[in-house]
Amino acid sequence: MGLRSFAGLAVASALIFVPNMAYAGEFPGDPCATEGQVVALGGGAIKCTGGTWQPSLETLDSGSTGASTVKQAKNFKSVGTALSAATFNSPDKQVADVTAIRLPNGKVKIFVYVANQFVRSATSTNKKGTSFVADPTSILSGAVAGQPRVVSLGGDSMRLFYIEGGNINAAISNDGGVTFTKEGPVITTAQAGFEPGGLTVIKQGAGYRGYFSNLEKPGERAFRVMRTATSKDMLNWSLGPEITGASGTIKDGGSHPFAVIDKKGKIALYYAGDRGSFYGILVSTSKNGVTFSKEKSVMTRGGDPDILPTGKNSGLMYYGDDLGAELGFGIKVAKSTGKIVP
């Protein structure tokens, strides 16, 4: 949870919590001096870990939404840890920005950002998609990249969107995600009007609709903006409106969205946000892809959600969370207990 800069590129973990302007004091990503110190923030806490403030579970139980005016969706229940820094033999205790795809053999492949290793992948040891081992090969030839989002193209083919050089880029694989060929930038900072974060894509009608937010940065107090875009081929995008703030319907903002669409065309948008005493994963729904309503809380302190459908309206949700002092930040998995498009 946090952000590291490499060669001028900001590679963000979407687990960064950017609170609303009503709070004062320390925030996740800000530097801290006393290792292990825990202070209250909103309805939870942050802890001094490795010289920076990072969200902590030490004052609230995982999955509890605390005292909040946001209604609970009650459609996912955490079932355990899927990935940690130990999976990749990383000493940096930071694994985030998860995205998952079902392979033709039934197993699940996950792509994540690993601190100082950039985009890595892991494959499930079974078809349940709850336990993983790291893949030996480096994704994107070790490019300084982050916030991956994978989209199935059928069979062994898939497209990976990721952040590199301040832009949303794309790469394609035809061998089950072992090797990728870069396709170049698809949405630039200049097009977006801000430095964009990861892109989530759904099939809508004869084309595609995508959502992305402004890139999270440590200590940044900027409003969390989400915007939509449409495309015929996933490579050439027409920018649509912002769906947050004064011009949108998600008034309080959100970051690192993930979209799911059901057979009737209803869209559920999952994203990280702060709502007073609650911060974590939220969900809102839309019939047209632009106007959203009925916001509900899904998972306290979770971030960078990604949902892998397992049935008509069921699925697994992979998300980032604090795994404790020994493991640092990693990826948890939750199973649906209700409709993924509520």
Structure notes:
The chain has one domain: 5 Propeller (Tachylectin-2, Chain A). It is built from 1 helix and 25 strands. Strands 6-25-24-23 form a 4-stranded antiparallel sheet, with no helix packed on it. Strands 7-8-9-10 form a 4-stranded antiparallel sheet, with no helix packed on it. Strands 11-12-13-14 form a 4-stranded antiparallel sheet. β7 and β8 form a beta hairpin. The two termini are 28 Å apart.
In CATH, what is the class? Mainly Beta
Q: What is the count of β-strands?
A: 25
Q: Tell me the strand percentage band.
A: over 45%
Please give the order of strands in the largest beta sheet: 6-25-24-23
Q: Overall pLDDT, averaged?
A: 86
How many domains is the backbone divided into?
1
Q: Which geometry do the CA atoms define?
A: globular
- Fourth-level CATH superfamily: Glycosyl hydrolase domain, family 43
Structural class: mainly beta
Low-confidence parts lasting 5 or more residues at pLDDT below 50?
1-25, 58-67
The name CATH uses for the topology is Tachylectin-2, Chain A
Count the DSSP helices: 1
Rg, Å, rounded = 18 Å
- How does CATH name the architecture? 5 Propeller
Q: CA-to-CA gap between the ends? A: 28 Å
What is the string of helix and strand elements?
A: EEEEEEEEEEEEEEHEEEEEEEEEEE
Tell me about the biggest sheet? 4 strands, antiparallel
Helix percent band: under 10%
